[in-house]
Each structure stands twice: as structure tokens, then as C-alpha cells.
Protein 1
Amino acid sequence: MAIQLQQVSYTYADRSLWRQTALHDINLNIAKGSMVGIAGATGSGKSTLLQLFNGILKPSQGTVKVLDVTIQAGEKAPRLLPLRRRVGLVFQFPEQQMFEETVEKDLIFGPLNFGMSPEEAKMRARQAMTDMGLDLALLERNPFRLSGGQMRKAAIASVLAMDPEIIVLDEPTATLDPLSRAELIGLLERLCREQGRTIVIVTHRMDELLPYADQWALLKEGRMAFQGSGQELAADPDILESCGLSVPHSLRYWNAVARRFGLEGEKPCLTAESLAERIALLQAEGMRDRHE
């Protein structure tokens, strides 16, 4: 497993009058090389959960195991700097991560801090730019003069340059236009499928990730409300509304088609293209049956 949480709770300001428990008794297993979506209403504990994955936060109760590092509540944490190289965290707003004069300086900052040579750091930076579909000419640009989509990709590239095994992203498509959102999700899927990286994405736009995520975890008021595959989630869409989430349009369309043609139990078509192909096939079969 890439990430395992066993009976994990987290409480802010644990010893003060303002204590607030953000997570309650969370059990979660994330397989290596998988693409995982995490969703929940505002205040459900999503961002708190992400910060447990690379040791920014430590559990108030329970055990967090990430790769070969175990963090046990109440015990002295192991050295976490190596873990933070292996688990890259991308914040929701890229300007929170970009701070140097040029994109290249931003991208080599992490690798240099983790002991890479300047030559290797620059090589990693260029490879990360290529992996994110960015023109290498942008390396000399000021990151704050990039477009929103370019800046988001550059922020991810700054994490990718450290060659992490796990990449955790908080609302990576926020503020992007539909075309840029689809392109970014496609790039992240390739990092998962072609490079074997574990990709964990917090999102409120489930439509764009639902066809690609191997696993989903839904949070409700700091508790795990659902954990399973997209197909299992599609079979029980009511759980989404109970968590304060809208049922994705793709899932609504599929359920309507499934009811119309008696396809309940069939693997859902969750992209517009696959759904259109399935409907066209059903129509062709109907036409053939009428002629016979």
C-alpha cells in the first residue's frame, strides 16, 4: 500500500478551549500506482486528511503509514524530510508555492534542498516541464507572468521535479477553464498509468475525475462515508447527496440510459464519448431488431 490510515483522528488546538476534531476514526487504504479521488462538502476534513499524508500534520489518535514510514499518535515522529521528498503536496492555489524570479529557479529549489547537484536539479526541472506539457522556454519566465493554466502546471512540475512516488493535489483544477481542466486531468492520469505514480486528488468537480479514478473516498463531517470504486459509487449515487455533493452529470446521464435500456449492473460509461458510443450501439441494435 502507498498510504494506510488506521483509526485516525485529528483534533486542532487539542489542549485549548478552541479544540475541534476535524477527523474521526478514519480508516483508508490507497494502493500504489492508483489514482484516487477524495470528495466531501466544505468543512468535511479533506484538506486536513491530505496534510497527514506527508507529515505536515500528525494524528491525534491512530496510525498513519505512508510507504515505509509509520507515524503513530503519541509517539515521537520519525525523520520526515525524506518522506516529504517522496510525497509531493500541491496546494489549491499555485501562487502559494511559487516564489522565485523564474520558473526554473522555482523548479530546482526543492531538488537542491534535497541534495541533488545543480546539473541533476536542472535535468529534473526540464523533465518535469516536459511531463506537464510545458514549453521549456517558460523556464526563463517569471512564474507570476504565466497564464492560470501554465502556473498550475508549473506548480505541479515543481513537485514533480523532486521525483515523488506519491503526488497529492488539493483542487488542482480550481479556477481553470473546462479545456484546461480536462487537459490537466489527462496529464495526471498519464503520470499515474505510464510512470506508476500514486495520484491523490481532492476535488469538488467529480465529473472530470470520475471516469479515471480507481478509487473514491467520501468524507462527511470528518468521517469516512464511502470508500470504493467509481463503479460502486455509480451504483449508489444517493451517498453523494447525503454527503452534500451533487451527483455528477455523467452519472445522471448514465443512470437515465441504464434505466431506459435495462442496463443496471453493467459497467457505467462515465465520459461523454463512451456514453455516446454506447447509446449509438444500443440504437443500432434496436434498428437491427426491428428489421429482423
Protein 2
Amino acid sequence: MEKPYIVGITGGSASGKTFFLKSLLGAFTPEEICLVSQDNYYRPREMQPKDENGVYNFDTPHSIDFDQYAQDIESLKEGKTVLRQEYTFNNPDAQPAMLEFKPAPVVVVEGIFVFYFPELTKHLDLKVFIEAEEHIKLKRRIIRDRDERGYDLEDVLYRYERHVAPTYNKYIKPFKGDADIVIPNNHGFRQALDVLIAFLKTKVK
């Protein structure tokens, strides 16, 4: 098979990447597109860095096994199927699934650090940066971490102030200038999504 067209999608935490990706994937069949998310490449909890107060910081590049991430993208480029255990964000009630990533004409590489790690970015044919205003991202993060991860408000605000915001300014925002497409997502992204879908359709014919 021909080598896949690889799209990197990044943006700050709670910028709306998950909903954008869901909408993007909905326009294609599983045979046409494959999503490989950074979320499934977190290192084990005991290997995560801690801040000055002893709180685990999952919002640094050191939290991610980028070597394995890049290796799996390379395998997909070579036409190989990749198996990876789902990461469940240390939720003891969640049973991790075994994920199967199959080669496809379009491969989407998604995560807050996918523009940061050179061994990963060298594979990207198109770079998409999704952004949103800070107060909107904070609101989304509070709702998500409460509903999906069981964090209380104090914990969410602590992590946002000490981990999330500094990480965005240091490891994510500086690479916005490397993007081929920047999509504002304060109130919606439909037109930009339609343009991207139309372009990627040309890669699956």
C-alpha cells in the first residue's frame, strides 16, 4: 500500500480537540482513517514527574512515551497493524481495552505535545493547531475533569494553574507558528472542519 498521509492535530488542554476529532472521523470510514492519540502513551503513574508539592504532573512532555509513540507511527507507515493497551487515566473502575490501529490512507496523530517531539513531527504531512481563549479552556477542563476523571474543583484549579497553563505557554503555544492550519474554537469550527474534510477526502481516493 502507499504510505499514509499523516495529519498532526494539537492545541492546548480543553481546546476542543476531542470533539473536533470525533467530527472529523465521522466523515470517514474506519478503512479510510486511523486515529492514534497521545493519551494512550502516558508512562505508568510511578514514572510520572511530581511538582514541588509532591503532586503528580501529567502535563509535561516527560509524561509521554514518545519513543514508542513515534515507533508505532512508523509501523503504520510501513503497513503494519499496531496494538496498544488503552490508558484509563488511573481510574481503578475502568477496564482498559486493547486498541488496534490499522493502516489507512489517512492517519491522524493527536495530542498536546505532537508538535514538540522531533521524532514524531518528522512524520507529519499536515499540522493543525486548534486554539481557544483561556477562560473557555478552563471551563471545559473543569467540566471534563469532574465528569470523566472525578476531580473536585480545587484539584482541577490547582492543576490548571500550576501544570496546565505553564505547559501550554512553554511546550505548546511556541509551536503554533509551525502549523499549516490554525483553527479558532471558541464557539465552533464547522467551516474549518468542512475544509479539512474536503482536503483529506482527496487523500483516500
